[in-house]
What we know:
The complex is a heterodimer of chains A (132) and B (220).
Chain A: E1 2-6, H1 10-21, E2 25-30, E3 46-49, H2 55-60, E4 68-71, H3 76-88, E5 94-98, H4 102-110, E6 114-116, H5 118-131
Chain B: E1 2-6, H1 10-21, E2 25-30, H2 33-43, E3 47-49, H3 55-60, E4 68-71, H4 76-90, E5 94-99, H5 104-110, E6 115-118, H6 119-130, E7 137-141, E8 147-153, E9 175-181, E10 185-187, E11 200-206, H7 210-218
Parallel strand pairs in B: 1-2, 1-4, 2-3, 4-5, 5-6
Antiparallel strand pairs in B: 7-8, 8-11, 9-10, 9-11
Amino acid sequence: MKVVIMGCGRVGAELAGMLDSHGHRVVIMDTDAYSLRKLPASFGGSAIVGSGLAGEDLKKADIEEADVFVSATRGDNRNAMACQIAKHIYHVPRVVTRIYDPMREEMYHSLGIESVSPTRVVAELLKEKAEG
Amino acid sequence: MYIVVVGGGQVGYRLAKILLSDGHEVLILEEDPDRCEKLTEELGSVVYRGDGCEVVTLESVGTGRADLFVAVANRDEVNLAACQVAKHRFDVPRTIARITDPANEAVFQILGVDVTVCSTQVILSHIEQELPSHPVIPLLKLKSGSLEVVEVKIPAGSRVVGKKLGDFPMPKGSAVLLVIGKDKGPQIPTKDTVIEAEDEVVAVTNSENEEPIRAILMGK
């Protein structure tokens, strides 16, 4: 499977490493070259400097060949826009993102974007711990 | 009309001021507290501090009854997110987004924003009107005399396409040195060299003859 990941923060870098070690073809992109250092030493995919909101950068990442696009930057708005570009302009079959605002998550879901809301997930985990 | 404006920068402020004086009900959403205070001083209590992309915020300002939703923050992705929440969660009939990257115009339209306004594109189109779209590109100025080496890319609609170089004489003191074909590569031209669209023609000329050369090689 060919996966394009936008955002090489802790989550993006970790995910890229995991998918790569599972034998997937991974391209990870970040606007900041320094972030790409977070990738594990064993990472065998490609890492490029570029924005998931810019057509020419997405083409460099071979978005047209991708089976999955994952957006994991810190900004909900950036994630949502990048995913919609991947889905509607480049017709990537599956797009997944992180959305912090749980109330917006449902809306994006109805627009065909799969998302994970760390806010809700973490809050629930913390609640379980707190209640013992 | 009830109009919600996201972004209280210069554009949001001017827009709100005019809309208010036209008698509309206006609400500005702005995140920065200092800016909110300033806007309130200027415009009265029509400013709400909050994130215009957040469902909760939009709910508390009654976006559901808005006739028009205008997103003029300075980031394209913010304006897209705000318009989409207004449209899909609150069924606002008309959304307008300001964008800065002309490439986003098509994206926003596909994603359901009703109107996009791109100041970059507006300025560009004014510039393009004044400049020939395929200019004569100066490559090199020769030290002695006023001669220079220029390059011209032959547009598809040019009348020289398909014709021999010998069929259209160059102005006096000018000569074609090289024709670089898209597929054929560079070739030293003779009067029988056939010019094709997208060919790059390198010529030596003086500055007075630049315009005549442009007219010969690029004219329709």
